[in-house]
Amino acid sequence: MIRDWLTMEKHNLEIISDGKEALERLKYYQFDLVILDWELPGMHGPEILKEFRDAGKTTPVIMLTGKSTIENKEAGFGAGADDYLTKPFAMKELSVRLRALLRRPGSFTGNVITMGNFVLDQANFKLTKNGSEVKLLPREFALMEFFMRHPKQVFSADALLNRVWASDSDSSSDALTTCIKRLRKKLDDEGKPSIITTVHGVGYKLDVG
Fold first, then answer.
1. β partners of residue 204
2. Which of 54, 124, 142, 206 supports an S-S bond with 147, CB 3.0-4.6 Å?
3. pLDDT in tens, 13-56
4. 2-102 belongs to CATH 3.90.550.10
5. 112-206, what's its fold?
6. pTM of the prediction?
7. What separation in angstroms does the CA of 72 have from each of 50, 76, 86, 93, 201?
8. Are 17 and 55 in contact (CB under 8 A)?
9. What is the DSSP letter of 90?
């Protein structure tokens, strides 16, 4: 339900169902926000969060749990949670809390990203170049949004597939290559270097002034 709701709201998601794998992923990848369930196989949410915070990570974390006593909440906040949502909850409430955390200093602010002559409006699923809208397919939009959130950072093909395609059945290196080709065709200026640079043997990065 959470995945479907946040996908509908145009967020890029990565779903991890094992506690130990979640901690490993959090160590090596940067996320804008983490929604962390208390009960996970392998390692519980508070344990994951404590190790994450002990490593100096400051990414906002919303803890989800069926545990509603004040002692449980103290344990969640004590482990380093920024917010605590007790099940069952309305999806709109999750969205409100998520937006509030993303507005905090140091996090992504707002739904509009401006970079060079590109403006991406995440809420309205719209990308403009020099003021003119560029029609993008959902996966093209998701990839461009990810690049614009992480400009000039190099990501391997596997990292992009993990972050943008997540658990989609069509995730493959061919799907990524095809998506990048389509983006270049739609967004590049003729006779100029592509805005999506291939770093040979490493991956790809967005190079927009």
1. 155, 198
2. 206
3. 888 889 999 998 888 777 889 999 988 888 888 889 888 888 87
4. no
5. Arc Repressor Mutant, subunit A (1.10.10)
6. 0.55
7. 15, 6, 10, 20, 47
8. no
9. -
